[in-house]
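Regression test case RT-17, inverse folding.

Input:
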């Protein structure tokens, strides 16, 4: 069963999500293209299962240089959806080596269509819809963030209840 952006089992479902979550802690993130162009973002860090379940749900605005980074404790195939998400998003699937593995551009608000990474990834980045096309961000570009130094991302001592498929 899919819940709030991440495919989950029925056991993982908690109380219904009816409003946006408060802003989460942030980190800087940059994406470097093959030509060396660097794009800078400030991203909220969705680390806990509940933060990942809620994601960008019910938010009505996302600044052009903002986003949300979902950090998995171990690489996994990631399936996302847009239920209760009111704004279009670009879903950027990032491999364990911090390169863009796949992009789902302009995901449709409120859609329950599954957006899959089509292979294991270490994290997922949500950006405002149209950002990747506007900036020329493509598969293979390199992603850097101070968030990648955390245990929740590299699998050491990370949360045992991380999302999964």
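Golden output:
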């Amino acid at each position: 069963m899919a819940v709030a952006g991440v495919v989950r089992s029925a056991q993982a479902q908690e109380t219904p999500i009816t409003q946006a979550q408060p802003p989460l802690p942030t980190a800087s993130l940059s994406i470097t293209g093959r030509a060396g162009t660097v794009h800078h973002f400030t991203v909220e860090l969705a680390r806990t299962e509940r933060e990942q379940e809620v994601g960008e749900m019910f938010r009505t605005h996302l600044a052009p240089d903002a986003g949300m980074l979902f950090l998995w404790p171990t690489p996994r195939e990631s399936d996302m959806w847009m239920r209760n998400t009111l704004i279009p998003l670009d879903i950027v699937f990032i491999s364990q080596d911090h390169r863009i593995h796949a992009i789902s551009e302009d995901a449709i608000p409120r859609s329950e269509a599954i957006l899959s990474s089509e292979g294991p990834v270490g994290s997922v980045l949500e950006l405002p819809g149209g950002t990747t096309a506007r900036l020329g961000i493509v598969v293979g570009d390199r992603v850097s963030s101070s968030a990648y130094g955390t245990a929740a991302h590299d699998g050491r001592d990370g949360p045992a209840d991380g999302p999964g498929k």
